[in-house]
Design goal:
The chain is an alpha+beta fold.
Length: 111
């Protein structure tokens, strides 16, 4: 679905299903602004021939995960959203940390 800008509700919501919105942008700064202009942030993707530029853009997007030139993650990649998308993380080291309760160290007889 081609949308003129982010005022279209489909561009603003997390639609779970086979839906893709296509939106133009003026330059990379505008593309990042469009990507960040939502209250959600589950995942995103950057496709580019310039890997360095793609990684720079991915770092600037406020999203739980951002794939660069890929469409899926693996078991080692933590997943989880930011803003109104999801709670916590799954998979990877960050996902394991969600299940840990770090106790403060107390000096004992072996110290």
């Amino acid at each position: 679905m081609v949308v003129a800008d982010n005022s279209n509700p489909v561009a603003q919501r997390e639609v779970f299903g086979p839906v893709v919105t296509i939106q133009g942008y003026r330059d990379l700064d505008h593309a990042v602004a469009v990507a960040n202009d939502t209250e959600y942030g589950l995942s995103g993707g950057v496709y580019t021939a310039d890997l360095r530029a793609g990684l720079d853009v991915a770092r600037r997007i406020r999203s739980g995960t951002v794939q660069v030139n890929r469409s899926c993650s693996n078991a080692y990649t933590p997943a989880g959203g930011v803003k109104q998308s999801g709670l916590g993380r799954e998979r990877g080291v960050a996902g394991l940390r969600e299940f840990q309760d770090i106790k403060p160290h107390r000096a004992g007889p072996l110290d």
